[in-house]
TrEMBL record:
Protein's UniProt name: Phenazine biosynthesis protein PhzF
EC annotation from Swiss-Prot or TrEMBL: 5.1.-.-
EC top class named in words: isomerase
Top-level taxon: Bacteria
GO molecular function: isomerase activity
InterPro entries assigned to the protein according to its UniProt record, in alphabetical order: Phenazine_PhzF-like
Entry keywords, A to Z: Isomerase
Keyword Transmembrane attributed: no
């Protein structure tokens, strides 16, 4: 989602005020585990400078990885 917000700014595909773009996305509906993602893109010289992601999410699974050499 973060790349998507920066991509929208970079390619001029979504209106913004020249300083920030704020968008909200929804994830997990099809799995019955809905979450909301808030993306804020800080803009400088009409290009994305920083992306902040926040929101509420649902953990679908937890895993531990072991790598042995």
């Amino acid at each position: 989602m973060a790349r998507w917000g920066a991509w929208l700014v970079h390619h001029g595909l979504m209106a913004h005020d020249g300083k920030t773009l704020q968008i909200q996305g929804h994830q997990g509906r099809a799995l019955g585990k809905e979450g909301t993602v808030d993306v804020t893109v800080t803009i400088r010289d009409n290009q994305p400078e920083n992306v902040t992601i926040s929101g509420q999410a649902v953990i679908l699974f937890h895993a531990e990885w072991a790598i042995t050499f």
